[in-house]
Amino acid sequence: MKRLWHTLLIGAIGGIVIGYLMALGFSTFFNTTYLFPSNPTFVSHWSSPLAATQLSTLL
């Protein structure tokens, strides 16, 4: 059971890190001055970039 929780924790942390690295990549690709959690079309569906970042982190 301990090994399962350890694996889940490592997987969750790894997923969040990968997501934020992708966000940095999107921000660099679209030459923005702030962090995009995803491509601009996704971000435009939300009230703010913060809301889009929160959803991206949850996903």
Provide a quick synopsis of the model.
With 59 residues, this protein is mostly helical.
Describe the protein's architecture and organization:
- With 59 residues, the chain is an all-alpha fold.
- The chain contains three helices and no strands.
- The chain has helices at residues 2-29, 40-44, 49-58.
- The two termini are 25 Å apart.
- The mean pLDDT is 85.
Report the helical percentage: over 70%
Number of E strands: 0
Tally the helices.
Answer: 3
Order of helices and strands: HHH
List keywords for this structure.
mainly alpha, 3 helices, 73% helix
Write the layout of secondary structure elements.
Layout (H helix, E strand, L loop, with lengths): L1 H28 L10 H5 L4 H10 L1
